[in-house]
Amino acid sequence: MDTRPAIIAVIIEDNESVKEFNAILHEYAEYVIGRMGIPYRTKGINIISVAVDAPQDVTSSMAGRIGRLKGVTAKTVYSNI
Predict the structure, then answer these.
(1) Cα 15 from Cα 43, distance rounded (Å)
(2) E strands within 1-81?
(3) Could you tell me if 40 and 46 are in contact, meaning their C-beta atoms sit under 8 angstroms apart?
């Protein structure tokens, strides 16, 4: 199956969703290249980027599940490769 590198940009505004977010990442661990999280304490949010290499439908499913969490926004940018 063809894979495509992508970045999922995530902003978590509700800390109650962090545990569920991490559980989703764990489910898709085989596709995750890496992640970087920055706690922005002044605003009380977390800014996270997740680099993945997966089939486009898998990346879309993962980002969709993340974006449906309470207080979470997720956007995906795909590589042209």
Answers:
(1) 12
(2) 4-12, 32-40, 45-54, 72-78
(3) yes
> Per-residue pLDDT tens for 18-53?
999 999 999 999 999 999 999 999 999 999 999 999
Phi/psi at 31 (nearest 5 deg)? Answer: -100, -15
5 φ, ψ (degrees, to nearest 5): -65, 145
Neighbours of 13 (CB within 10 A): 13
In angstroms, the CA 1 to CA 40 distance is 38
- Using the 8-state DSSP alphabet, how is residue 36 labeled? E
What whole-number distance in Å separates Cα of residue 41 and Cα of residue 36? 16
The amino acid present at 18, given as its one-letter code, is V
